[in-house]
Specification:
This protein is α+β, with helices and mostly antiparallel strands and 141 residues long. It has three domains: 66 residues, no CATH class; 34 residues, no CATH class; 32 residues, no CATH class. Helix content is 26%, strand content 13%. The chain has four helices and six strands; from the N terminus they run E-H-H-E-E-E-H-H-E-E. A two-stranded antiparallel ribbon has the order 1-4. The protein has a two-stranded antiparallel ribbon with strand order 2-3. The longest helix is centred in the first third of the chain and has 13 residues. The termini are far apart.
Amino acid sequence: MKVFNGRSASEEYMSTHSLTFSTPEMTLKKFVLWLGEPVNHPKSKERVPRLLLYIEERASSGQSKQDSLMPDTNDTFRPSGAVTDMYAGISEISSNANREATSPKRDSIKISESDIKFCLACGSKLNVNSKFCRNCGTKQD
């Protein structure tokens, strides 16, 4: 049986792309476009959608084998990819309180009211120098 190895595809995408100014919706859209990009197939050298590189032949032996192909959907914060160095030494953060307490560099920065602006699209508070909204991802003027 041919199956899609979603775990391998999502891990490769997350390790090679910075998601700093990306919303979950935008990340999903970019991931889908990435899967559809034409690439050279390693065996045939034919141009194929990247998705085909993650199709594997597996024996149909049960649900546990299928689970190993599913992307990790645990939403506990675990730094990976571009932010790994920024969170060095922190293995896992499981709550907003912990996330705020261990956020790098921001804890010591005091922001005055003159250093704040609001998102043009959703109204979230932003640093005056922000190029994109951290909440919705909209580019700021």
